[in-house]
TrEMBL record:
GO terms for molecular function: homoserine kinase activity. The gene is thrB_1. It holds the Pfam family APH. It comes from the Bacteria. Keywords: Kinase, Transferase. It is an enzyme of class 2 (transferase). The keyword Cell inner membrane does not apply. This is Homoserine kinase. Coiled coil: none annotated. The lineage of its organism: Bacteria, Bacillati, Bacillota, Bacilli, Bacillales. Residues 26-259 form the Aminoglycoside phosphotransferase domain. Its EC number is 2.7.1.39.
Amino acid sequence: MSNIIQLEKLCNDFMLGEIVDVPVAVTGGFMHRMYAIQTTLGRYVVKALNPEIMRRPTAMNNFIASERIANVAAGYVSALPAKMFKGTSIQEVDDQFYLIFDWIEGRVLKLDEINTVHCGIIGGILSDIHKADFSELVIVNNGSNDRQSTNWSFYLEKGRESNAEWANLLFEQIENLHAWNKTAIASTNLLSSEVVISHGDLDPKNVMWNGDTPILIDWESAGYRNPKQDLIETAMYWSENERGQIDRDKFSAFIAGYKKSQGTLQANWAMTLASGFLGKLDWLEYSLKRSLWIECTDEEEQRMGTSQVTGTIHAIIRYAETIAEVEEWLDH
């Protein structure tokens, strides 16, 4: 069944009105597909959840929990949770799962458009999320301290067998990847005793701006995080330029925005920054799986995975080269 027919059925099943124009594919990150839909009753954005991801044993519960978090967070910050029908945010049509959102006016800022004011605003919003009371949700922290390092040699072997364009780059960095992975897991385990519930992926692509007003979207990574690690990772996202370099003024503005309601910050910053490798390494492994057709649905997704492997390795290298300087900023 075609995407359009499925979307028409979705609109009929949930009384969104009749589609009056051809659905338009819109940018929705690197994992799922999104469509803008105009109907007789309104305008919506529909996120078609990646079938490969939804086959994971924990996926459904994770999406349910993240949308519950988004709904509570909307009482503290400007957030956009998915619409609920019959008590659930996740809708199913012909074995395909969807999230449905009301259309909002706004746009994502490009990296060269972000200034210190934007950074200060988002820093303050992150602080508000960290202080929010999510206790009514009774969400269990399923974090584990027995995580093992990824077998990067397995992916290198598979990449060489398929003549993957990233194989040589992975080979050049494989010893570093093992070292970064080991250090990141150890640091994350040590930081796991201090956690809050947070958005989990509050980078610029997940904030829509309507004038000076930010609206937080895409809560699917929401869950427990170490607050200092979440702070530093998010501050670096917002202070990065198009070449991957961190602007100190933007970084400092973000930290200052956060500190307005948090007070003095104290942490083992070296450990905090080391733990920051883990999310990037997880994304690299997922991209490798897509590129190698291990966890992939079609050629477009495979090409995206291949592109992301190369880009992510370079991003991890830049991160490794940057963290010593960032630690010095934080210490002073």
